[in-house]
Amino acid sequence: MLCLRCSHGLRATPTITRALSQSNAIVAKRTFTSITPLRPTLSPFAFKPSTPVVIPSEAAPLDLLPKISTHPALSTTQLRCGPRNTFSPSHFVRKRRHGFLSRIRTRKGRATLQRRKSKRRSTLSH
């Protein structure tokens, strides 16, 4: 096995280099699932300029590109601050987690109610 100092004169042949670059390009374009990810990602084709289409602002779909960096190095990484489609509000769940009865049941909840009562809040909880 050669060390890095000894192998500086050795180089891969152009055909091997070309074949490796083509296989890397195919792997980068390939997707393995049709399910939308919970954390949105940018695909490499999102950076290619497309023909401009005029769409009214109320009918325009949400676009991830203006909200995050469009640097090519971030093309396959996860977007940490992009919009998500996971929130579905429910009043029952909100009242179960933060409601008056759930505050009464625990010691910290009773302390929260007492603190809000001492500040004369108009609503103590949900």
TrEMBL record:
Cellular component GO terms, alphabetical: mitochondrial large ribosomal subunit
Pfam family, one: Ribosomal_L34
GO aspect biological process, one term: translation
GO molecular function: structural constituent of ribosome
InterPro entries in the cross-refs: Ribosomal_bL34
UniProt keyword annotations, A-Z: Ribonucleoprotein, Ribosomal protein
PANTHER family: LARGE RIBOSOMAL SUBUNIT PROTEIN BL34M, MITOCHONDRIAL RIBOSOMAL PROTEIN 34 FAMILY MEMBER
Homology family: Belongs to the bacterial ribosomal protein bL34 family.
Protein name: Ribosomal protein L34
Organism: Botrytis elliptica
